[in-house]
Records
---
Amino acid sequence: MAGTSLVSRLILLLTSSMAALWLLGSVAAGMLTVFEVNERLDNAIEEVAQRLLPATYGAVQQPQVMQQTARQLVATLDPKALAYQIIGPGGEVAMRSGNAPERPFPVPRQGGFHDTPQYRIYSQPAAAEGYFIEVAEPAMHRSEALLRATALTVGPLLLFLPLSWFLIRWAVLRSMRSLDRLRGEIGRRDGSNLSQIPDMGLPAELAPILAAVNRLLEHLERALATERQFAANSAHELRTPIAAVLAQMQLLSVQLSGTQHAERATRIVSQIKGLSSLAEKLLQLSRAGAAVGMQKERIDILTVLQVLVDEFRRREDVGDRLVVTTACSDELIVQGELDVVGITLRNLIENAVRYGDPDEPIEIVVERDRQIRLLNGGAVIPSQTLETLKKPFVRGSSVGAGGGLGLAIVDSVMKQIGGSLMLMSPVMGRNGGFEARLVFPEPI
Amino acid sequence: MRILLVEDEPHLGSAVQEHVRAAGHAVDWFERLEPAEHAVLTVPYDALLLDLHLPDGRGLDFLRKLRRRGNALPVVILTARDLVSDRIEGLKAGADDYIVKPFDLDEVNARLEAVSRRYFGKAAPVLQVGPVELEWESKIARLDGRPVELSAREWAVIEVLGRRRQSTVSKEQIEDALYAFGEEIESNTIEVYVSRIRRKLGRDFIRTIRGLGYRLGD
């Protein structure tokens, strides 16, 4: 039943149960009807036999007169009407109704009911010695009577079945409306919407679910806010001491230059920078993860780009290598959190600076169809390596001191905001290079 | 240049002070905003290196107050907050540049000089003073095309005069730009530096305006 709707299951279950009950009731009613009709008809045959008792005297004393009387008593020749015979001591038919066979009924001469294929026969000893009265009801008549009685009893019950299905379906659908609304509201809660579900006047059975979901949403939102706050605070708490250590070590390195310890000092500076970079990426990864419930605000990505490009161009290893081409003249609105989108773009630019050919430009192309392409020079990256680059701690090249987290962070963020990250190498129409393309969804 | 540094992390503050000083600048370092506020009112600083999280307040509030008073001092923010929104907020508050911790000490000097160039009109990367050619960014001086080696202090004196190219700079102004609070300074220190520069770059490179001070010659 997995995959079928609760409504269908309920309707099927209720209708089947109802049908089974109807069937049971119908069978019981039919059996009772058959029993009652049989009893009534048997009583009628018995009664006729009783009434014929006096006639046996006449049949014995004045057979000719009684034959005439008998014809009057049972004048009909209707094959469905009761037939009777008065059987003499020698087994001959002493008297019979017009619709009775001329030969005696093929039943033993004993009191009680007997059945033959054509008749149900009641046999009763007559008042005269050796005589029997046998009243027979045609089997066809009884079958018809039973069939009609059963049809009248069971037929309406069967007719009610489709009506029951319709009523059950209506009742179930009506009762499920509240559940549908609740389901719809819960369904609308996702990474971008952790707001409380409003009171919908739900029935008593569903109200606790609503309250529990709201409590859960509140806890989740609080936990995510705490995580975001923690990530932001950690940035400060971690970076400042690392900055102090790096600055002191750089001073020491300058002081040790020209001595035997100079190389070691340079290595330590390099290690601190690596540690700093790793700490920063881990914080960004944590931030990206904590952005599950991030507010999706409308932000102009060109503004974010401007701030970042301005920052990167001040770096000696970047400068005018960073070239921006945009097809959007004034703004490009996307939906997300400003800082998280900033982390995404920063990582892509850093990736291009770190792994791209330092003698080739880093191009940022903003397309009209909500796509941002970052292109850098360099050797072609094999397709099997490209596929793994979005995984954490995977580097595409041994050149550069990256932590292998940048593209994993970008991929994580883009998925959360409903967009995607595509990686290509070589750049389309060129012999080498690498392209990272961000595809942003339409803002709501 | 005379730099005001506001940084509450002692190891970082001392390293920045030492490194910037080694580049020939005077650095007054405070760990809190309150003394920094007094200092900025009394000393004509050339740039401010400002941390944002300080024990007695937010660096951004200090910066906004500074700008509201009409103080156009070049400001470089030193912060651990690297988010785009933080950067936008800092720039909106009136910062000229933004350096995220941890940073290279050389990067601090480079940024200081970059904002200083923007402020003091040394936009032209090369200044020609008679036979002397000065490359501000690489700090290279050439006399008749030959490179001349200058100490950080000597270069700092030239920078002070170069920033006020068209005016006469008093000895006290040069002292203020070169020496921080509490630094020992002899009465003839500036004369000594001027004399050394003239020996290296020619007598006419720096002109003495009697009773007023010095200026770069033509």
---
Amino acid sequence: MDCFTDIADQFWAQTRNGLTLGSIYAMIALGYTMVYGVLQLINFAHSEVFMVSTFATLYSLRNWYGVEQMPEGFGIVVLMIGAIIPAMLASGLTALAVERFAYRPLRRRGAPRLSFLISAIGASLFIQYLFVLMDGSHYLGPIPLPGIAGPNPQTVPSIIERSQVFSIFGTSFSNKHLIVIIAAGVMLFILDRFVNQTKLGRGIRAVAQDAEAASIMGVNIDRVVVVTFLVGGLMAGAAGFFYSAILPGAPAFWFVGFLPGIKAFTAAVLGGIGNIRGAMLGGLLLGLVEAYSVPCFGSQWTNVTAFVVLVLVLLFRPTGILGEAT
Amino acid sequence: MSDQPPVNKKQEPEETDAQREGAREGRTIAQRREQMRKSRSAAMGGARRAVASTLAPVTRWWGPFRQKIDENSKWSLPLIGFVAVAIAALLPFLGEFIELPDWLARATSGSALSRVALFTLFALGLNVVVGFAGLLDLGYVAFWAIGAYTAGILSGAQTATRCDQLGLGNCPDAEWNMFMWLIIPAAIVTATIAGLILGSPTLRLRGDYLAIVTLGAGEIVRIVANNLDSITGGPRGIRNIPHPAITIGDFNLEWGTLLDTKYYWLMLFFVVLWIIAIRMLDHSRIGRAWVAIREDEVAAAAMGVSIVRMKLAAFVIGACTAGVGGVIYAQQVNFINPPTFSIIQSILILTMVVVGGMGSIGGSILGAAIVVLLPEVFKEFEDYRFFFFGAALVVVMIFRPQGVLPSKRRKAELLGAAHDEGLYDAQHGGE
């Protein structure tokens, strides 16, 4: 019963934390769920797509903009846009590369599902250790690898100063939380409109329903797959930017994608994999569940909570809350 | 009349146009699908032929040889096995007979070989899960950890370490609270229980969900080991786990520190034991049930194969193997802590199974040897190891999905290339 009074005490603070983290999960989960919808496979390398964006954020902030001090006023907005674009592009391109080299050759020959998964694990390892090797002292054949990453975590400069915007019942909502929640909300809304109202979005939905029928009706499947990976990558890139540059504490690190990746997958399953709105809902729910578990079990058990949620969802409702339909 | 030929010529395209029109109307979507499938399988065949032709010299030599073995399997297999084991057991002495180049000396050192043997054991176990039963287990390291921690706790090393850390004074030395050969069955029991706990709910899931759940489970075991200080020693781990020893009367055989070559022979013993057991399993009723499940779950269930039980059997056998390996590992290294059992180990073992050839015992051995010895041989490229493994996994999946030494059964299945739609997909879909 202690647990419940603790939750009640920290309810608003944990709700705030949960929503913030949940928005990040939701954005990453979209990549999983869209690729699953179109190809019926778990894009195991998606956590690396996310990871790449933390390095892109670090690189652009440090080397292009030379962020030492936090800019004031309007400068923050410019800086944020200037840093989020390279992050999104880096992730988007990584996602495209994964699709091109790890999935398309297998798709061409109709390989069994296990092959896709193993190939994705391979791509994931490849990208992770590519960044481990990029410490400036390693070579890929004759080509020296740039020294932008390396085996150790690197702190990403925080671009905005934390300040309280408003408070509910004694819990302060800072500008950082609000930026993440609002920006994520806007991007998810745009994505939702894109999938539901544009021609390309209709193609994506058609391929998700029945790829062969869609191709007979004139949908270019390869194009749809590329767009799906690209959109998923862009969203993961934005998530990586928020995760590393806005929220405190997350470094640029070759292994940084693992936990958010697996949790985002949990979120996608929770909401119903293949279902875009489900992924958003699942992300927020998982963030909240994790946050509420902190007062109960302590923060060292949050990861276990997420995995237990995953197992329970898969056992009792494998199609997720909103079902698997797109 | 002289105009007729041109008329005919004109008619011809008209006819074909009409035919096309008719075809466009008459061919149903289902027929077109069939055609798409055919063209796709033709493309697949082309790629396979290309691979087959590059490997032709090998198959030309291997084929008749293999056939000979198969024809006289009653005496040839035990003989080949015996010779292979003898050669393997003598490998550490290779350097004493002939001058070895540096890299080969590194690869045949006792420590490198015992790592190969240890990972061969793990690969054999995971091969039962992934190769035989077709279940993708990405949390295999969990059972290795469970075996190792069982050894750490039951041998009394954990209490000693903890007593030491708390500074209670008068701490007992870690010694065999239980005889080594009792710890191995104990680890089998704990690993079996863990396998049942993890497997019985999750094996009902379809393949890719299972992969993620096992991945999560592997992490849970590591986090639990990290967080439960009082039982597992937490992040500081367990120190001074005693080395194994056999004492019968005057006969005393003791294993020394990490680099002792005797560990290699100990592990080799278990590897041989496991190979015999797994071969027997594969050729038993259970092995045939696994093949049936892999090929067509629905048909297997219809024929009376208990899907979940058979999957669970494979999962638990894999878990036991890792448990045994974990005990020997803990006794050899004599120190364990949670970071040892990170996700990368599961993936390494999976790499061995996949690169070697899923479902093939020889493939598991070869895969373990490749993955463990390559960084040993190319010492200067050790940093690049995982980088190249990642690339290798993708390349193997694209060009040789059956692995380097494929099993005959598995190869036949891959050529059939059925989409593995599970029975439980259908069930859950209907809910």
